[in-house]
Amino acid sequence: MIRRYLVHAAACVASVLLFGCGGDEGGTAERDTGHFTAKWTISNQRAPNYCVAYDATGALIDIRNDKEEFVAQIRVPCDQFESSIELPVDNYHASIVLVKENGDAVGNKIDLGTFKVGAGADITREATFAMPPPES
C-alpha cells in the first residue's frame, strides 16, 4: 500500500516538473493542454470484488508520444476503474494492464491505441479485461 502512494507521489512530482507550477506570472507562456481518461472493466463489470478475486491491486497506464518517448506511467487502484491525466497538445499512444501489489501483470496488456490531444480536448479510451467471472 505504501508503494502505491509513493508511486502516486512520484507521478505528482513528475507532473509538476513536466507542466510547471500553477499561477499567472507575467512573461510566462501558457501551454495548451487537454485531458486523457482511461476507463476499464473486468468481464464488463466495474465491481471491486473482481479486482480482489484476481489479486489486482492496481491498473498501470503507460503513455508515450508518437516518437515512442516515455511521457507518463500512472498506477491507480484497480477498483477506481478510471484515471485521467492532463497532457500537452501532441500525439500519444497508451496501454493499460492490471497489476498485483508487487507489479506483476494480471492478465494481458491492452492497447488503448493512438490519440491526439488538442487544446481543451477530452479524450477517453475504454478497455475490458476478458476474465472469467470470479467464483462465488
Characterize the structure shown.
With about 140 residues, this protein is of the alpha+beta class. It has one domain: Domain of unknown function DUF4458 (Immunoglobulin-like). Helices cover about 20% and strands about 45% of the residues. The strands form two sheets. It has a four-stranded antiparallel β-sheet. The chain has a three-stranded mixed β-sheet with strand order 4-1-7, with no helix packed on it. It comes from Polyangium jinanense. This is Lipoprotein.
Features:
136 residues; alpha+beta; Immunoglobulin-like; 7 strands; 18% helix
Judged by helices, strands and strand pairing, the structural class is alpha+beta
Oligomer: single chain
CATH class: Mainly Beta
Shape: elongated
Please report which band the strand proportion falls in: under 5%, 5-15%, 15-25%, 25-35%, 35-45% or over 45%. over 45%
Range of helix content: 10-25%
* CATH homologous superfamily annotation: Domain of unknown function DUF4458
CATH architecture: Sandwich
Instruction: State Rg.
Output: 16 Å
Count every beta strand, where a strand is a DSSP E run of 2 or more residues: 7
Mean pLDDT reading: 84
Distance between the termini: 26 Å
Low-pLDDT stretches are 1-7, 12-29
What's the story with the biggest beta sheet? 4 strands, antiparallel
List the helices and strands and how they pair.
Blueprint: H1 2-19, E1 33-42, H2 48-53, E2 58-65, E3 70-77, E4 82-88, E5 90-99, E6 105-117, E7 122-129
Parallel strand pairs: 1-7
Antiparallel strand pairs: 1-4, 2-3, 2-5, 5-6
